[in-house]
Amino acid sequence: MTNATMGQVLLWVVLPYVTFAVLVVGSLWRYRYDKFGWTTRSSELYEKRLLRWGSPMFHFGLLFVVLGHVLGLVIPKTWTEAVGVSEGFYHFIATSMGTAAAVVAVAGLVILIYRRRSTGPVFLATTAMDKTMYVFLAASILSGAWATVQTQILAGGHGYDYRETISPWFRSLWYLQPEPALMAGVPVAFQVHVAAAMLLFALWPFTRLVHAFSAPVQYPFRPYVVYRSRDVSVSSRAPRPGWDPTDRAR
Amino acid sequence: MKVMAQMSMVMNLDKCIGCHTCSVTCKQAWTNRTGMEYVWFNNVETRPGLGYPRTYEDQETWQGGWERTKRGKLKLRAGGRAKKLASIFHNPKLPSIQDYYEPWTYEYDMLLSSPQGQHTPVAKPKSLLTGDDMSIQWSANWDDNLGGSTETMQDDPILKHMSEHVAEELEQTFMFYLPRICEHCLNPSCVASCPSGAMYKRVEDGIVLVDQDQCRGWRMCVTGCPYKKVYFNHKTGKAEKCTLCYPRLEVGLPTVCSETCVGRLRYLGLVLYDADKVGAAAATEDEHDLLAAQRSVFLDPNDPEVVAAARREGIPDDWITAAQRSPIWKLIHEYEVALPLHPEYRTLPMVWYIPPLSPVVDVVASSGSDGEDGRTLFAAISQLRIPLEYLAGLFTAGDTGPVERVLRRLAAMRSGMREVNLGREFPEEHAAAVGMTGDAVQEMYRLLAIAKYEDRYVIPTAHSEVARELEEMACSLDFEGGPGMGGAGPFGSSSGTPVPVAVENFHALSSRQTADSPYGPSTPGRVNLLNWDGNGKPTGLFPPDEPQTPAQPGGTAPGDPGSLPGGRQDAAPDSPDGFDGSAR
Q1: Burial of A128 from C-beta contacts in 10 A (0-12 / 13-18 / 19+)
Q2: Torsions phi, psi of B273, nearest 5?
Q3: A-B interface: how many C-beta pairs under 8 angstroms?
Q4: What pLDDT band is residue B584 in, cutting at 50, 70 and 90?
Q5: Alpha carbon of A218 to those of A63, A86, B199, B210: distances in Å?
Q6: Would the CB atoms of A238 and B498 count as touching at under 8 Å?
Q7: Distance in angstroms (rounded) separating the CA atoms of residues B540 and B159
Q8: Beta-strand relationship, B351-354 and B3-12
Q9: Which of A105, B128, B401, B538 has the most CB within a 10 Å radius?
Q10: CA distance B255 to B479
Q11: What Rg do the C-alpha atoms of chain A give, in angstroms?
Q12: Could you give phi then psi for residue B209, rounded to 5 degrees?
């Protein structure tokens, strides 16, 4: 942790850990206290035509973007080089796939925001929290897309190699030996993107974005028809934390 | 054999006058909330007509229910598990609000607040979605009583599937009403469609419910249900549906729609069925055999083997007795006059219908013949193809045979009972012609026409005795601020999780509501500590206070009603005097 200024420590050590804590504790709290509010709050009932294009584009685009982030941030450069992926090849794949995914996701986002603003019932069903969330979501996605365009495409050559700076910094957070100095020389566009994303993650548990955590991955593995007994589902008083229900023999 | 009990309903369509009382009382009880304005758990459709939501029966468009694959397996028509997950970001087959109708209210305030003027003020319709002025184009029963149906009737999915000559003869229009609730199917496609596993069928009584805490609003259930009886609450973002009024059923009361039905046409009771046979029955190859297949799933509650198997499955004895007395079992199995709605959806629905004879009777009567005469009726039933085919399109996947048999039984009952009314013997040959005995027909008449309350509704109460009573004891300290502190969360009573609806709350509430005094014991001189909710001082719990001198300034206890300013000096001694503020 040499050469790190106070501002750098705040931005690249304190903020990520605070974000992580808020995300985890906030999600647990929300899940325990507000299961009823844990939903996508779909507006498809109001409007289908624009949603039909916007939503799949945004979500599938974003899934690919997330996949790209996992590849770029989690997997060290030495690993990919060990299996024979050259820097040039990696750069080409990452930039082309990433740009394509970003274009689809951004186009979807634009359609969705336009739909939300222009369709009366949808706009009326938009809460203040939704609007705040949209600001941070759009900021994260647009700054990320801009960073890619500016440093990877317009800059020419092999572009900016974030796998030498951002990725090691990101992994250092997980080893609990944060190295904020790595972020010092990173282009501003990337710095903005990372900061915006952290703020978005801190906001995450308190918005409708929680629906991402309830992706129905168990659906393919359960029997079609679910049976439940009245005994477990109904009680004359609200369940309270702290007491495990005793198994009552009938 | 795995015996399960299913609470089910039969509706006698001949007696439905289309008054919508069931819809209105259901709405008042369950869906008079924001987000549910457009929702009718119970609705009454005029047939022929488009239904609610519009053309919901057209499964080529809406893709509800199950279909049978070539290899004989059942598959959700809207796509299997992989397709469901692939289309999770946008459900392509979800009806939009316009397919139901855009909910509205009227500017009633204008009627009172507008200034005096030359013209009478009007209450303009306002959309409940946008708040803007709107022109009302459709509603849940827009084509009620065939209103405007010359424009829309050709879109009726049942008529579309009928043969061509119908359109020409449609001018001799027939009509009847079809009240609809959730079918609480044995093989529910909505439950199968739910990616979150939030929908379930209750083991005890087969009621299909949505766990509101587990629903994530993926909306696949709305698509999955071919009857379109699961609705999306656009305010909460959760699916909601008819609950068969389970909080009422659990205490032995009929559903709100049944209780308030003016025509007394609804029957409620148990059916025992073999859960192991459900899958095979739903996958029956020929659609016309689905009715027989579903009947074969049901178990005779009078069969000793079935009773023994039911006991082994833990079905209580009073439930078995209720299944033996069930009017549903009689109508489905003994008299064989009830038919399921759209068996071709392969969900094995459990709200059945007695098809109406009245379209036939009306035609016979309007042609100048005797609408009550057995021979005329029998001839008319087989000649009047339109009503017959239409009813078959609704109840038997297009097979007119079973519908014709039912209508002949109803005709035999009608003409036979006319003879009895005229003081003659019941004509046994009428009963024999439809494969029944005179006694059986007269019993059926008592169930259908006299329809006593206790015959229509045979509802065993939920079983809670041991565990729940213990829980009530623990609950008695659960008032706000009390030692149990269960009354409210840290953020006040409107926060946190709601108190669940349950039999026990119902009993506690009703006993509190019907008690003479909210705190006093029902028997003078005795205190039932188990029923005491911890509030106040029930009379007899403590030795009587020292006699107090009335109206002594500053010397009375703060809670003594006699001492309060303006308090009733003549309050009866056993009035709620236990309500002592200092005791809380």
Answers
A1: exposed
A2: -140, 165
A3: 161
A4: very low
A5: 18, 38, 14, 18
A6: yes
A7: 72
A8: parallel
A9: A105
A10: 30
A11: 22
A12: -130, 160
- Asked if residue B327 lies in contact with residue B269, where contact means CB atoms within 8 angstroms, the answer is yes
Distance CA B410, CA B135 (A): 44
Average of per-residue pLDDT values in chain B = 83
Does B94 sit within 8 Å of A45, measured CB to CB? yes
| Residue B417 clears pLDDT 50, i.e. is over it | yes
Across the interface, whether the CB atoms of B496 and A238 are under 8 A apart is answered yes
Max mean pLDDT among A35-49, A194-208, B459-473, B496-510 falls in: A194-208
Sign of CA dihedral B64, B69, B73, B79: negative
Domain covering B1-49+158-462 in this structure, CATH number = 3.30.70.20
Rg (CA), chain B: 28
Interface ipTM: 0.87
Q: Is A10 helix (H, G, I), strand (E, B) or coil?
A: helix
Task: Give B513's strand partners.
Answer: none
Residues 290-319 of B with CB under 8 A from A: 314
Mean pLDDT score, B528-542: 66
Domain map (residue ranges) of chain A = 6-215
Cβ pair B363, B384 in contact under 8 A: yes
Residue B351's DSSP bridge partners are B9
Angstrom distances, CA of residue A120 to CA of A116, B232, B236: 8, 19, 18
Task: Name residues whose C-beta falls within 8 Å of residue B374's C-beta, 6 or more positions apart in sequence.
Answer: B411, B412, B414, B415, B416, B427, B430
Going from N- to C-terminal start, the domains of chain B cover 1-49+158-462, 464-543
Task: Select the residue of B89, B196, B234 nearest A45 (Cβ to Cβ).
Answer: B234
**pLDDT tens digits for range A174-227:** 999 999 989 988 999 999 999 999 999 999 999 999 999 999 999 999 999 999
Instruction: Answer whether A181's CB lies under 8 Å from A4's CB.
Output: yes
What separation, in Å, do the N-terminal and C-terminal C-alpha atoms of chain B show? 56
Instruction: Give the per-residue pLDDT at B487.
Output: 42
* Cβ of residue B456 closer than 8 Å to a chain A Cβ: no
In the block, tokens 């109904």 appear at A234
- Tell me the shortest Cα–Cα distance from B401 to chain A, in angstroms: 32
CB contact under 8 A, B91 and A44: yes
Residues from chain A that touch B191, judged by Cβ atoms under 8 A, are 224-226
Residue B342 is predicted with a pLDDT of 96
Distances (CA, A) of B406 to B159, B169, B331, B332, B428: 21, 24, 11, 11, 18
Q: Do A36 and B238 touch (CB under 8 A)?
A: yes
Cβ atoms within 10 A of the Cβ of B433, count?
16
Residue B340 has pLDDT above 90, yes or no: yes
Closest CB to A40: pick one of B84, B96, B218: B218
pLDDT recorded at residue B477? 43
Nearest to A225 by CA among B98, B331, B192, B29: B192
- The C-alpha atoms of residue B201 and residue B8 are separated, in whole angstroms, by 13
Enter the pTM of the model: 0.82
Which segments within chain A are labelled E, that is strand?
227-228
A-contacting residues in B 148-187 (Cβ below 8 Å): 187
Q: Can you give the three-state secondary structure of B477-525, one letter per residue? A: CCCCCCCCCCCCECCECCCCCCCCCCHHHHHHHHHHHHCCCCCCCCCCC
Nearest Cα to Cα of residue B391 among B409, B375, B405, B377: B405
* B477 near A CB under 8 A: no
Query: Do B388 and B396 touch, CB atoms closer than 8 A?
Result: no
Q: Looking at B133-137, B290-294, B374-378, which range is the least confident one?
A: B374-378
**Residue in the block written with tokens 């029902």:** B522
The fourth-level CATH superfamily of domain A6-215 is Transmembrane di-heme cytochromes, Chain C (1.20.950.20)
